Amino acid sequence: MIPAGYMLKTVCARPDWIGTSDVKDIYSVSGCISEYFTDYIEHWRHNGYWLFNSPDDMYEIANKAGIDRSGLTLFYYEVYEHEFEETEKLWSEFATEPAFVTAVEPPNRPQLVGFDVTSFSAGTVPECSPLSCNSLADEIKTNEHCLLATLEDARSALEAGRFDNSEPGPFRIFAVYTVED
After folding, report:
1. Do residues 142 and 88 touch, judged by C-beta distance below 8 A?
2. Is the Cβ–Cβ distance between 131 and 23 less than 8 Å?
3. CA-wise closest residue to 14 among 5, 1, 31, 27
């Protein structure tokens, strides 16, 4: 797993369209349900994974924009070094966007909470997390945060076609951590 960066998010409770009561809230990488702290791309402080190298980069944006951070959760992500193309059933390497500096400062005490599978059809920013966005958590066993338990669970589900026709791929796997703010 490769250090990918940080994101501040508003964690949302399970939406009604996810039927399984095993899911309590959404810790997905995408900002579709649990939204990012702001429309951060316009600030051009993100790294080549379209996340942040350190929490301080986000705090500076939030302070300048007058964003109250009290209801936000700080996440740290690591990304699996290959992405999966579901139409060809192939794993391949991918690279960061070279126009942005990627120098992630790993946290001191991250708490692993699970693994997410996220679509990257444009190859830049994380798009959708089908476990939550497409209710695949109704068909694929997840934890209370709508995440898979292990990297192997994510790899196996992708290879078995469990994410096929959910969102346009390729798909990348992220380890999701919470970090004390």
Report:
1. no
2. no
3. 27
**Which distant-in-sequence residues (6+ apart) come within 8 Å of 149 by Cβ?**
114, 115, 141, 143
Cα 115 from Cα 112, distance rounded (Å):
9
Q: What is the dihedral of CA 40, 128, 25, 81, to 10 degrees?
A: -90
Distance CA 127, CA 173 (A): 12
Spatial separation of the C-alpha atoms in residues 24 and 20, rounded to whole Å: 9
> Does the reported pTM lie above 0.90?
yes
Q: How far is Cα 53 from Cα 181, in angstroms, rounded to an integer?
A: 15
- Nearest Cα neighbor of 51 from 142, 120, 111 is 120
Place of tokens 């790899």: 155
pLDDT per position as a tens digit, 54-97? 999 999 999 998 899 999 999 999 999 999 998 899 999 999 98
Phi then psi for residue 112, to 5 deg, are: -65, 125
Task: Determine the Cα–Cα distance for residues 41 and 97; give it in Å rounded to an integer.
Answer: 13
Q: Which residue type sits at 53? A: N
Alpha helices, H only, the chain:
55-65, 130-133, 151-159
Amino acid in position 52 = F
